[in-house]
Amino acid sequence: MQLISEQLAQFHRDGFLVLRDFLDAKSCDNILKIAQAHLDAKIEPIETETGYDSRDKAYRTTITDYTSHAKEEQEVVRRLRQVYQRDILFKAWMENEKIRPILQQILDDQVVITTAHHNSIMTKMPFCSTQTRWHQDRRYWRYSDDNLVSVWLALDEEDSTNGVLEFIPGSHKMKFSKDQFDEKEYFLESIEKNKQLIETKVSTNLYKGDVVLFHSLLLHRANKNSTEKPKISFVYTVKGLQTKAEKGSRSSKFPEIVLEKV
Ligand SMILES: O=C(O)CCC(=O)C(=O)O
């Protein structure tokens, strides 16, 4: 499957692209079942809700031990990390051959999975999840260039009530100054020039099997989950083969999976 030229142009212009009904419902449900089992048993490495919100920039930039070290039984899981190695079904989705030509087109390069980043089942649990503020994923990643794209798979319905992603179209190409971000490099909502840009935000409801591809520099955020049902999604990141992790950085400390050209 290939993108038509309008879709490719749309990705490059907006920094994201939605592929409707991309993965069949049965495959989504199978992934969901395994994810649910790992979530119920809190199988490490996980990140807890407390950890997700509280970690500082230094931790986020250097962490290589992804275990949560959570001491509390009642800690809520925010994401299962390192999912590529967890289960054959997770690996199979990340190596899916139907999406590969699309990723090749977008990256204009051979596709490489970066197991250092995202590589996660993301959750928003009812009653206790938090919003994710405006940010660019690339801020804590260390690569030779920005040719990295995340692949978000909706395993069920996602909308503004349970925390669907929101994007600022075109922000992956914009130049920002340091003072537009706080100390954790979240995009400040309180300053005038940011407010105007935030008004241009878009989001679209997602349904089981929909995929969103988004650029590593695209500003995005998500609400907390205000419903009574968990929201569970799959996200992983790919890069072009020419894009190199900086030596010694966290980005270089996890295996990269080079996918054959199709
Ligand atoms: O599910 C969310 O809150 C968004 C997650 C996200 O944007 C991220 O972890 O980069």
Brief overview, please?
This protein has 262 residues and is α+β, with helices and mostly antiparallel strands. It has helices at residues 5-14, 25-40, 49-54, 57-62, 88-94, 100-107, 192-198; strands at residues 16-19, 46-48, 77-80, 111-114, 120-124, 132-135, 148-154, 165-167, 211-215, 220-222, 231-240, 256-258. The strands form two sheets. Strands 1, 2, 3, 4, 5, 7, 9, 11 and 12 form a nine-stranded antiparallel beta sheet that branches. Strands 6-10-8 form a three-stranded antiparallel beta sheet, with no helix packed on it.
SSE blueprint and pairings:
Layout: H1 5-14, E1 16-19, H2 25-40, E2 46-48, H3 49-54, H4 57-62, E3 77-80, H5 88-94, H6 100-107, E4 111-114, E5 120-124, E6 132-135, E7 148-154, E8 165-167, H7 192-198, E9 211-215, E10 220-222, E11 231-240, E12 256-258
Antiparallel strand pairs: 1-9, 2-3, 3-5, 4-11, 4-12, 5-11, 6-10, 7-9, 7-11, 8-10
Bound molecules: 2-oxoglutaric acid.
Give your account of this protein's structure:
There is one protein chain. With 262 residues, the protein is an alpha+beta fold. It has a single domain (5-258), classed as q2cbj1_9rhob like domain (Jelly Rolls). The protein is 23% helix and 21% strand. It contains seven helices and twelve strands. Strands 1, 2, 3, 4, 5, 7, 9, 11 and 12 form a nine-stranded antiparallel β-sheet that branches. The protein is globular. The N and C termini lie close together (10 Å). The relative contact order is 0.24. Bound molecules: 2-oxoglutaric acid.
